[in-house]
Amino acid sequence: MPTSLTVFEKIWNAHTIVEEGGQSLLYVDWLICSESASMHAFNILHGEGVHVRRPSQVFGVVDHYSASTGPRLEDVADEERRYIVTNLENKAKGEGFRTFGLDNPHRGIQHLVGPEQGLTQPGIIILC
Question: Which 8-state DSSP code applies to residue 34?
Fold first, then answer.
């Protein structure tokens, strides 16, 4: 008699690309990246001559360096952080993915933008 799978196992199995040595490579439905960590990732990609493969599945969120006093670039604490915010917005334009930047009324905390914008749905895998 076959054993039934948990919901987690069904989702995991549906997203498994390859398994090897007890590890799984998973297909990710959405990537939600913030300005603070994405700068390094894009530098690595571009250093390798690679671009975002599926920009419709990537979302940038200005989160960590967005000032609570207002959604203006001049409200960001210092020049280095303003550069990081601007860098994400420029990468989004260059790579063709959507960003919830300072001028976007739907901007917010990275881990809340997904549910608030309907990206978080049952059965999908999101990487933040």
Answer: E
Query: Would you say 32 and 128 are in contact if contact means Cβ atoms under 8 Å apart?
Result: yes
Q: Give residues with Cβ within 8 angstroms of 101, minimum separation 6.
A: 60, 62, 85, 88, 89, 92, 107
Question: Model confidence over 25-76: pLDDT tens digits?
Answer: 999 999 999 988 788 888 888 899 999 999 999 999 988 877 666 677 777 7
H/E element, 126: strand 126-127
110 contacts 61 by C-beta, under 8 angstroms? yes
Q: Where are the alpha helices (DSSP H) in the chain?
A: 7-15, 35-47, 79-95, 110-116
- The answer to pTM > 0.90 is no
| Distance from C-alpha of 58 to C-alpha of 126, rounded to nearest angstrom | 10
The backbone region for 91, taken as left when phi is positive above 0, alpha when psi lies in -120 to 50, beta otherwise, is alpha
